[in-house]
Design brief:
Elements lengths: L6 H4 L2 H26 L2 H26 L4 H4 L7 H13 L1 H14 L4 H8 L6 H34 L2 H14 L6 H18 L3 H19 L6 H5 L7 H23 L2
Helix pairs in contact: 2-3, 2-8, 3-8, 5-11, 5-13, 6-10, 6-13, 8-9, 8-11, 9-10, 10-11
């Protein structure tokens, strides 16, 4: 369960939501500035890293310091258990078929734009150095920044004014809104899963881990396709028997998620 924090006693909740909104805008602006200037893999990676550091991590650390609060305890960075981490990772990966099935019909009505494919192409590095940089940005930096923002702050503000499950649902929906329309429903469901991980364990490391595992799996799929076949990479391999894939996916997810909940709640 999420412990009570001291922010609510010192900062107005609307001001905290405004703070979160400004942090998100600065993060996206800084990332987009480098991408639009050079349109390369290193520019994308560097923009993301700079955006997260200057737009999210630095402001959040500064806020904690100004209020004389511990950064790690205030933003719920707790201990880390390897077995629980494995279960959370397995549950997250088992969601891939189900969320692909959800995304497939949405993509038919709202297909990815040419700008999106251009963005995805920039994720494809040309060398070892760029590969390490893009993995660091997408798999490590993005999950830390976005989970700190959406689960570490936004969800906890909502938690103070609504039932815990409603706070999880609303923060997940807001998380989906910032993503492309064709992927928004699946990303919102993914955000809800991240929210429950924080709700059960009160530890932000597990949503960060799940977010990173998800990003790593999707990045690996993209890197497996040549540049000219990115549209094929976007096509769901689970569209042949969607109901079967959905059932298997949810069964595995339910199994691993139930064990994860039990361990996180201990």
């Amino acid at each position: 369960m999420i412990p009570k924090d001291e922010l609510s006693a010192r900062v107005n909740n609307w001001m905290l939501l405004l703070f979160a909104g400004v942090s998100l805008l600065v993060y996206q602006f800084l990332a987009a500035s480098l991408v639009l200037t050079w349109e390369t893999s290193w520019a994308l990676s560097s923009g993301i890293i700079v955006g997260v550091i200057l737009g999210i991590l630095l402001p959040f650390r500064t806020l904690a310091r100004k209020l004389e609060l511990s950064f790690s305890s205030q933003w719920l960075f707790g201990g880390f258990d390897i077995w629980t981490a494995f279960l959370v990772s397995a549950a997250t990966l088992s969601l891939i078929p189900a969320l692909e099935v959800v995304t497939n019909p949405v993509t038919r009505f709202f297909p990815p734009s040419s700008e999106y494919f251009r963005f995805v192409n920039m994720m494809r590095p040309d060398g070892l150095w760029e590969t390490g940089l893009i993995v660091a940005a997408i798999v490590v930096v993005v999950p830390i920044g976005e989970e700190l923002l959406f689960r570490g702050l936004v969800m906890r503000v909502l938690f103070r004014h609504s039932r815990p499950v409603l706070a999880v649902l609303l923060s997940g929906l807001l998380f989906g809104v910032i993503h492309p329309l064709f992927s928004a429903p699946a990303v919102a469901l993914l955000g809800i899963w991240f929210g429950f991980l924080l709700l059960w364990g009160g530890n932000l490391w597990y949503p960060i881990l799940a977010h990173g595992i998800w990003n790593l799996a999707n990045l690996a799929i993209l890197l497996n396709y040549p540049r000219e076949n990115l549209e094929e990479a976007m096509a769901s391999p689970f569209s042949g028997s969607p109901l079967l894939w959905m059932a298997v996916s949810l069964l595995l997810f339910g199994f691993f998620a139930a064990i994860s909940q039990r361990r996180l709640s201990e």
